[in-house]
Design brief:
651 residues; alpha+beta; Glutamine Phosphoribosylpyrophosphate, subunit 1, domain 1; 4 domains; six-stranded antiparallel beta sheet; 27 helices; globular
Length: 651
Amino acid sequence: MCGLAGYLGNVAEPERLLAAMGDAIAHRGPDGRGLNVIAPEGSAPGAGLSHVRLSIVGLADSAQPMVSEYGELAIAFNGEIFNYVELREELVARGYRFRTSGDTEVLLKLYEIYGPECLCRLNGDFAFAIWDGRAKRMFIARDRMGVRPLFYTEKAGTLYFASEVKALLAVPGFHAALDPLALDQVFTLWSPIAPRTAFEGVFELEPGNYMIADASGRRISTYWSLDFPDAVDVRPELNEDDRAAQLRHLLEDATRIRLRADVPVGSCLSGGLDSSIVAALAAEMAPRGLDTFAITFDSAEHDESSFQKLMARHLGVKHHEINCSEADIAAAFPDVVRLAEKPLIRTAPAPMYRLSSLIRETGMKVVLTGEGADEVFAGYDLFKEAQVRRFCARQPGSKFRPHLFRKLYPYLPGLQKQSAEYLAAFFGADAAPLSDPLFSHRPRLRGTAAAKLFFSADLKSRLAGYDAADDMIAQLPERFSRWHPLHQAQYLETRFLMPGYILSSQGDRMAMGNGVEGRFPFLDHRLVEFATTLSPSMKLKGLKEKYLLRKSMADKLPAEITHRVKQPYRAPDSRAFSGAVAQEQVHAVLNPSRVAGDGLFNAAAVDKLVQKCAGQSAPSFRDDTAFIGVLSTQMWLDIFQGTNRRASEAA
């Protein structure tokens, strides 16, 4: 796990540039630095690679950029190839030699032999760039699920790329500017839709894609994408026990290979089903015993420490926890925005940032987590909600409607008191046609997009006629309409929210901010591909989420964990900024003159929102979303456009 940066083209002072790009992402690789410059040759452009290293595998002999045996190839690699042991053994049996013990040389050798087709042989989380001196081209690739980030831009005919946009900002003459369409997407979908990013002119290489760049230009291709069977081909499972056994075997192996490291590997423990499963498997396999890590909250609404302690006692692991107060969230939030590199509409990444600091303070660099299970096995409330809404649309007179809505969110007591009519309207039971490709996500999109009421008149004018949901629909595959509704909902969640928010803003960025690598057994591509073949009822059986997963792992967990109702990870949002110190922080960023001067939001409306949230003990979802969205956007401007802003103010 590391950070990489580089270029393809002709630049002045390449060593200085590569060093500056590495400096910008040094937090990703505190254990080592390196760079490699390839001079222009004839019509071939020059190239350069920069690397900052978090050493986990091949500690003594896998420094990067790594050059191949005959000097024709050079690689800068971020991530891990978990099946490198098997791949290495296969290549050794065929007569190939290795000078190092890690996975980087295995990856380089595979590319040397197979070219781009090597990607299909990899089981890992990765982003890498290979200079191919044979073909005079740069080969850049990203893992299937989008665990590791990779961004690129072009300036004066030169291609620049990096693990984080911060490194691209080191390019002379490049200035950060917020993309208004990306902001609209964040305020609708929680994250920009790749390849778009928050920065104008900066793009994200999408998951499962690779780029080949040379003197003639760049070409992007897809080598893997999520797919499901046609709905007409979905059949009930004939033998649940066999399918549960298959799932168990895949999950065990996915966990086993993710424990491969030359340093200790710990496990995050939220108290929910997914992290408990991963920790239970890891505890049996970890050669040095297992350390687990958890976040606790002061508010009972967010705290899951009783379940965390229950699971830790059950496993007999060494358990560590860090409390995250509302003041802690407010204090960390500017750093969170700087690391995320995009506006946010939730504070949930902040406690994850604090958790990674705890992990690093214990001397650990690697942890397993349960991310991905909710997307792969239909665990989110959204999937159940969509199923209930479809039932209501078909049975508008059913007396079961209010009871079904109340069963969706047992952890939200306020909803239990509402009338059937209120609940139907709240969940949009009759608001979207069943043929709508975004049917499952319309309530969330509608609820989040309400925060766009705070956009300024000028921004609304610039966005006139634009609908982020239309962009979402435009990127759906042709086969989408033929899938089962649950599979459609899973695709939307996995394709749009997971890589841009869960794995990025809340995952990679918060962990790597403290030099910690997260590993995700549920996102092993073999497990993901297996889950796509399961009938929908094996994932969502009635209103019981992750049915087959629970069945396959029930003997490993306490009953209280196995049968626990899904409680999504959340953190205090606007309430986190109610303290005196935080209020000063808010005023500095959201005072009317500053907001009006930046021109993105209605200053008077924002001022009323700030006062409203300060006076409420339980702000609404819309108010919370709008407050955090506006606050984080203004912080983003301070962090990334601050120099430009101060220069214009001085003029």
